[in-house]
Design goal:
Blueprint: H1 5-29, H2 33-58, H3 64-74, H4 77-100
Length: about 100
C-alpha cells in the first residue's frame, strides 16, 4: 500500500466507525431508525456520485430510476451500483418511517 494513502485510510476508517457505531448501538438497544437513516444517506451519496459520473460519460444527468436499467443494458457496473444504491436508499427510508411509527 502506498505510504501516502495509509493516513487517509486510517482517518476515513475512524470517521466511519465514529458514525456507524453510535447508530448501531442505538439500533441494538432502542430503535433502528438512526442506523437506517445513516445507511440511506450513505446510499444517496453513492447514487448522486454515480449520477455525476453518468453525466460525464453519457452527456446528461442520469436519474436513479434509469441507472439500474442503463447499467444492465450498457454493462456499466457504476451505473448498476448507483441504481442499486438509489433503491437501497428508498428501502431504508421506508423502513425508518415504518419503524418510527
Amino acid at each position: 500500500m502506498n505510504q501516502r494513502r495509509l493516513p487517509l485510510l486510517i482517518i476515513r476508517s475512524i470517521t466511519g466507525l465514529a458514525l456507524v457505531l453510535p447508530a448501531a448501538w442505538l439500533a441494538w438497544t432502542q430503535t433502528p431508525v438512526p442506523l437506517l437513516l445513516l445507511i440511506a444517506v450513505a446510499a444517496s451519496l453513492v447514487s448522486i456520485r454515480a449520477g455525476q459520473q453518468g453525466e460525464a460519460r453519457y452527456g446528461r444527468r442520469v436519474p436513479v430510476t434509469e441507472m439500474f436499467a442503463l447499467g444492465r443494458r450498457e454493462n456499466d457496473r457504476q451505473m448498476l451500483f448507483g441504481g442499486l444504491a438509489g433503491y437501497l436508499m428508498l428501502a431504508c427510508l421506508g423502513l425508518a418511517l415504518w419503524s418510527a411509527l
